[in-house]
Amino acid sequence: MPIKIPDQLPASDVLRHENIFVMPETRASSQEIRPLKVLILNLMPKKIETETQFLRLLSNSPLQVDVELLRIDNRPSKNTPTEHLNNFYRQFETIKNQNYDGLIITGAPLGLVQFEDVIYWEHLQSIMHWARDHVTSTLYVCWAAQAGLKLLYNLPKRTRNKKLSGVYMHEIHQPYHPILRGFDDSFLAPHSRYADFSSTFIDENTDLDILATSDIAGVYLAATKDKRNVFVTGHPEYDALTLHSEYTRDVKEGSDPAIPVNYYPNNDVNSTPKATWRSHGHLLFSNWLNYCVYQQTPYDLAQFSEERFTVDD
């Protein structure tokens, strides 16, 4: 949340330069507050596990957030009870005439599948196009980040020779960028993907602000300059044991996976891993809600226009 200080206090200019949200008394006196409407398009097979992970991160904020869950289609799920989907998930056709403050599109286990072979690819594109006119800021996570780059920048699918799996160190860029507010200069984050997000490739082919990178994992965090589209190539929402579950699944399937990097104590798969990325995951989502959503969205979502994306920096 912002701090409210006198309009002419000398500290105001310094804090604003550091992208700390300072609200002058004149604005605070007329401020209207309402819950934020955030839509989660859950593309992961284990929907209950995934929705819980994202809701945990969204809850770490003083802002009140009203969350709606969206499914990509009505195909039966092998990993989620039909009753759960019917009770808690909505179809796109029922919400497409509404406006939302934020949209989160999760990852999906489609790293080795070409976009045109994804059964719901055209429908996903329709939702992403819809978000341009109905959502203040969209957060693309892992596979969705690759899909978003394809849609917005027509970037071809780039696949690594081997799956990237583990917890990697990242360095921040543009330390005063709002999304990086409070981040350490270096931080850990988990990855589990085949997609390749080369820093050079992203820099040469887009106008994105590259905010955090890893020497091994490539770009981790990037955003459009208006902060309406934010790309996270890893999984800040993962629980401590999620990578372990994926690793054991891949072992059972006979894919001969490499042990996740920097994850198991002493690289022993029989040791219990610990989450070393939790604090930055919470911080990332808090910053997205605050700086990309709350500060840019109108009080009345019916007043959706280009004006809403003009904010005081």
Give the gist of this structure.
This protein has a single domain, classed as 3-Layer(aba) Sandwich (Rossmann fold), CATH 3.40.50. Helices cover 29% and strands 23% of the residues. It is built from nine helices and twelve strands.
Task: Present the secondary structure layout.
Elements: E1 3-5, H1 11-17, E2 22-24, H2 25-28, E3 36-41, H3 47-58, E4 65-70, H4 82-88, E5 89-90, E6 100-105, H5 121-134, E7 135-141, H6 143-153, E8 159-172, E9 186-195, H7 199-205, E10 209-214, E11 218-223, E12 229-232, H8 242-252, H9 278-294
InterPro entries: Class_I_gatase-like, HST_MetA, MetA_family
GO molecular function: homoserine O-succinyltransferase activity
EC number: 2.3.1.46
How much strand?
15-25%
CATH class: Alpha Beta
Helical content (DSSP H or I, runs of 4+): 25-40%
Shape: globular
The N- and C-terminal alpha carbons lie at a distance of: 15 Å
Unreliable segments of 5+ consecutive residues:
306-313
Q: How many domains, in number, for the residues?
A: 1
CATH architecture: 3-Layer(aba) Sandwich
Could you give the order of the helices and strands?
A: EHEHEHEHEEHEHEEHEEEHH
Count of DSSP strands: 12
Site (Important for acyl-CoA specificity): 111
Keywords: Acyltransferase, Amino-acid biosynthesis, Cytoplasm, Methionine biosynthesis, Transferase
EC number: 2.3.1.46
GO molecular function, one term: homoserine O-succinyltransferase activity
